[in-house]
């Protein structure tokens, strides 16, 4: 399905989109959500050219890369160095400032193909390859810059996949946080990030990319609709979905979503609910 006025990626058909969303919701609600599966489903909903064979090929590539890691190289630092040598040096996975301007930097299948991406997607590659090889690895959601951790808290080693997997010292991590937020590193920032938190942040990045490009409200809407399928999602996503529907000329559906959000927040913020109801009325009036 092509759109003559927009560059790719183009969305999949309505039937395939619905099927992909169903699978995403099922995976997100499972007992142990699979991070690579969820990221590839995001890719397939965003980019209609990613078919089932492409999803399988991406999983096979993660398996193949994991097979190139040495068997139990040692403690957390040895693991971090082994993954850095494999992914950062031999396969040249890394990021550059320009990658922040590209939607494919947030799509796992494209990151595997291009060997480039945002910090969080490169971290997903690190996590999934290292996990398959048996490493004690997890994501670490530093403010503004996602990294990976190896080992338990007492012996934790951090690596920055955006910088080719460079192993970080304590001052390195502190500098990353200060640079992103202006505040100092808090120990709570170093705790493992659950898979669904990682997925939510991936979708946040896609929404941020699309927000800067109003002509790509289609991309934003698909990302919001996936985020709404994650358990314990922020209620404000409903407001965002309503606004996007109105922006795209779907006034009735948008007004209904805004009304629903107003009902949700009325108990805690009556004046905000009134404003949102007014937005819903304005959206409906555009039909006249």
From TrEMBL:
What is the organism lineage in this UniProt record?
Answer: Bacteria, Bacillati, Actinomycetota, Actinomycetes, Kitasatosporales
Q: Which family does it belong to?
A: Belongs to the UPF0162 family.
Limits of the Protein SirB1 N-terminal domain: 58-204
Domain of life of the source: Bacteria
The record's section on InterPro entries has:
SirB1_N
Q: Which organism is it from?
A: Streptomyces canarius
Q: One Pfam family of this protein, by short name?
A: Transglut_core2
Q: What is this protein called?
A: Protein SirB1 N-terminal domain-containing protein
């Amino acid at each position: 399905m092509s759109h003559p006025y927009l560059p790719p990626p183009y969305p999949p058909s309505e039937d395939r989109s619905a099927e992909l969303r169903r699978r995403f919701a099922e995976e997100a609600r499972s007992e142990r959500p699979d991070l690579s599966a969820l990221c590839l489903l995001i890719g397939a909903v965003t980019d209609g050219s990613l078919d089932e064979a492409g999803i399988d090929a991406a999983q096979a590539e993660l398996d193949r890369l994991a097979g190139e890691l040495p068997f139990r190289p040692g403690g957390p630092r040895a693991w971090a160095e082994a993954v850095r040598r494999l992914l950062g040096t031999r396969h040249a996975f890394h990021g550059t400032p320009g990658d922040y301007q590209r939607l494919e930097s947030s799509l796992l299948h494209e990151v595997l193909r291009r060997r480039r991406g945002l910090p969080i997607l490169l971290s997903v590659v690190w996590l999934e390859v290292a996990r398959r090889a048996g490493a004690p690895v997890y994501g670490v959601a530093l403010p503004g810059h996602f990294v990976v951790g190896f080992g338990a808290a007492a012996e934790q080693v951090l690596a920055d996949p955006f910088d080719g997997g460079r192993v970080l010292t304590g001052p390195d991590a502190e500098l990353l946080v200060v640079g992103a937020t202006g505040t100092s590193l808090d120990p709570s920032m170093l705790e493992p990030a659950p898979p669904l938190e990682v997925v939510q942040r991936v979708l946040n990045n896609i929404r941020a990319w699309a927000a800067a490009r109003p002509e790509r409200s289609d991309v934003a809407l698909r990302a919001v609709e996936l985020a709404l399928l994650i358990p314990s999602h922020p209620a404000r996503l409903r407001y965002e979905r309503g606004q996007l529907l109105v922006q795209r000329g779907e006034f009735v559906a948008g007004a209904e979503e805004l009304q629903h959000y107003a009902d949700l927040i009325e108990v805690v913020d009556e004046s905000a609910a009134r404003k949102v109801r007014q937005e819903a009325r304005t959206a409906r009036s555009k039909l006249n």
